[in-house]
Amino acid sequence: MEIQFKDVSYIYQENTPFAHKALENISFMVDSGSFVAVIGHTGSGKSTLIQHLNGLSLPSRGEITIGDFRLSADGKPKNIRDLRRKVGVVFQYPEHQLFEETVAKDIAFGPKNFGVTQEEIDHRIEKLLPAVGLPEEILERSPFDLSGGQKRRVAIAGVLAMAPQVLVLDEPTAGLDPRGQREMMDMFYQLHQEQNLTTVLVTHSMEDALAYADKIIILNKGQKYMEGPPLEVFKQADKLQKVQLGIPEVIHFLNQYNERFGTSLNYQYQSMRELAEEIKKQLEVGSHE
Amino acid sequence: MNNALIIGQYVPGNSLIHRLDPRTKITVVFFFVIIVFFANNVSSYSLLTAFSVLCVLISRVPLQFILKGLLPVWFLIIFTFILHLIITNEGNLLVNWGFIKIYSGGVIQGFAISLRFFLLILTTSLLTLTTTPIEITDAMEEMLHPLKKIKFPVHELALMMSISLRFIPTLMQETDKISRAQAARGVDFRTGPVKDRVMAVIPLLVPLFVSAFKRAEDLAMAMEARGYQGGEGRSKLRELHVGAKDILVLIGFLLMLVALFFLRQ
């Protein structure tokens, strides 16, 4: 589903001494089936932004279109439940939302709310478990007995079981070890491609944004600071530096390398090995001259 | 989220009322709550109203904000008014609709009681609006200090109070977060039959309790790790001081008390 923000502003506790502008005149477009990374510091409005994607918050000004759904300040559309079924949101630390007696029941909770039959749910769970990397035995255990990483996988399975068309991820790898982080991101990317999902990823990691996103949106103090394909955004290291954001290590390395040796190697999603080969080749050519 | 109710909320500021010693404020509010019940004629009521309105004006908390925040309480005030209007049968008969008879005494009584009620809520919420919860507990601890002589656990009580106050916003935030997460999974807290709405609370309460217990454990652990062992010999980061302005305010309040007793019949 296509997502479009048009001059969206959101004000917390409007008309009180605590009023606070969380989003200001944000406009952008997410194509159907694309992978978008939203980057920004704590308090830049990322989390507020994603709450607008399934109508948990409605914009104070402006308008949002998601597929056929229209959200504006005029109040909730009647079919908000349909919207929530189609937009699956994995919140930060999703394991905090587990509550059922068994893992199977917890995963089934979402789809059941949207009226999916038990038969269909079982079918979905069967397909989901290997995708999120959980063993089948786990289904009858209490979610509270699992390890942190497993809990998170269960919670994520609970969102995926709703079979959403848009997947919204709010720092899904926070608090996991490096290996767990990579596994989880690879899992999301695979799901994104296999099920042709539209994915919105909120992250702190420039590496993840570079590796997976088709487009990056950078937020700063509630405003859109930059927008574009990862390679273009990361070309503007100075502009990012201004808001205390870095660039991925590979690009940083290449920039320094180019500066030092007066070369012009470009990052085009090469693997480490390919990059090393390129550098080697260049150095060999250089030494022959 | 729950910005409808402002009782217990603190509005930062730097007015005279904000800067008063919390003990002064608690004392004044405590006695004000009592003397409200002594008012019995127009002049004594106007004196008390003038006093509370003056406090609100000095505190510089927007009046509109307070009135809007007390919206849920308005219902009670109006209810009290109507109740008195109907059940009192003194004075002249004003309206007679057969089963409902309204007497002039009822109108006066209704006004007086609702005003009393309103003043009570206005001043007590002004206390919490201008005093941080921490200040209130500190003041309570100080004021209850004499009870230590009879082995009353004053420090522990104050600690419990400040911890619970401290965790109200945290738990509110947590509730908010979890309810959003469950709403995203299709839980509907607002519409549908009552039975469904009651059931919808379970996915909210279970995770909330789990996290509250976990927080409590973590906190206990952190306190022990830092060598906490009760109030014995513990010094304070924030000392409370009674200054000139506190004494002035207390004298002013006392004068008002005297005036009140002359004004009432």
Structure description:
Helices cover 41% and strands 22% of the residues of chain A. Chain A is an alpha/beta fold and 289 residues long. In chain A, the strands form 2 sheets. Chain A has a 6-stranded mixed beta sheet with strand order 6-7-8-3-9-10. In chain A, strands 2-1-4-5 form a 4-stranded antiparallel beta sheet, with no helix packed on it. The longest helix of chain A is centred in the middle third of the chain and has 17 residues, at 178-194. The model of chain A has no long low-confidence stretch (mean pLDDT 88). Chain A is globular. Chain A is built from 11 helices and 10 strands. Chain A folds into 2 domains: 32-50 and 80-247, Rossmann fold (3-Layer(aba) Sandwich); 248-289, no CATH class. Chain B has 265 residues and is mostly helical. Helix content of chain B is 68%, strand content 3%. Chain B has a two-stranded antiparallel ribbon with strand order 1-2. The A-B interface holds A 13, 16-18, 51, 54, 56, 81, 84-85, 87-89, 91, 94, 96-99, 109-110, 113-114, 144, 158-159, 162 and B 3, 11, 61-62, 65, 174, 177-178, 180-188, 202-203, 206-207, 210-211.
- C-alpha termini separation of chain A: 55 Å
Structural class of chain A: alpha/beta
Largest sheet: spatial strand order of chain A: 6-7-8-3-9-10
Number of DSSP E strands of chain A? 10
Largest sheet of chain A: 6 strands, mixed
CATH class of the largest domain in chain A: Alpha Beta
The number of helical runs of chain A is: 11
Oligomer state of the chains in this structure:
heterodimer
What Rg of chain B, in angstroms, do the CA atoms define?
23 Å
Radius of gyration of chain A: 21 Å
Residue share in helices of chain A? 40-55%
Our measurement of the CA-to-CA distance between the termini of chain B, rounded to an integer number of angstroms, reads: 47 Å
CATH superfamily of the largest domain in chain A: P-loop containing nucleotide triphosphate hydrolases
> What gross morphology of chain B would you assign?
flat
Domain tally of chain B:
2
Which pair of chains has the greatest number of interface residues, and how are they split between the two chains?
A-B, 27 and 23 residues
> What is the count of helical runs of chain B?
11
Fraction of residues of chain B in helices? 55-70%
